[in-house]
Amino acid sequence: MSLEIRRTGGRIGAEVIGIDLASELSDSDFSQVHQALLDHKVLFFRDQEITDDDQLAFAGRFGPLTQKHPMMRTVDGRPQVIAVDGEDQRADHWHTDISFTLTPSLGTTLRSVVLPPYGGDTMVANGEAAYRQLPAELREIADKLWAVHTNHAEQPLLKTERGEATRKAFLAKRFEAGHPVVRVHPESGEPSLFLGGFAQRLVGMTLRESRPIIDVLQSYVRRPENVARWTWRPGDVLIFDNRNTQHFAVNDYGDHKRVLNRVSITGDVPVSLDGKSSYMIEEGE
Fold first, then answer.
1. pLDDT digits over 215-239, tens only?
2. Is 147 in contact with 201 (CB distance < 8 Å)?
3. 36-38-39-43 Cα dihedral, nearest 10 degrees
4. Are 278 and 149 within 8 A, CB to CB?
């Protein structure tokens, strides 16, 4: 079967057909997949029988792998692999991976390992489309704003022993980074809204002053036409561009087990429309 890119939505998402991620992709096939990621922001692959090593190899084609998450527990012997387990945490809030660091992930791959009998979908939203939808007057304001992203914001509370241990580890060190609210994509050159749940407040404003503005901007990101929703099946793999998307893990599967193995690609320092770079405010030790 030849490679086919099949759109799953008008503004975000595509399924890649005719690819075996257990095999090394040819340069030609990878070039098409890479361009599809830039075009569609999130790619879905069905019926893949792959291992952690295969996932690491696939993610590594996009750039250097993130060696270890600053706080989250990783798979034994493979520090680049995080088992995203619903017994540890449920990321049911819109966010961009590790946006509280100076170099948020370039992208993230997820692979289904254990799935619940129902629920547990993953949603991915297009911040680039959201930016284009802003009224001109609101876009002019957003272009000049910077936000403080911190891990001490919107960390889900499970109220279980494992959940509390994971939450405690996540909050043990405080990270704060200043990022432009409108980020320029380093490959496409396109601007997008760069916010999410870790964006706690706007630079130069109090939390109370910041919240209404952030909420209005976020409402454009979360518009249904800007969101892809994926219902997991065994053998599924996805990759999303973390530089212009946000994602949300739907917490609707009760006490059932859900495990996705995650491998992320190291990103670069975000840059604003006027060429200014992000900066660290506080970095935990």
1. 999 999 999 999 999 999 999 999 9
2. yes
3. 50
4. no
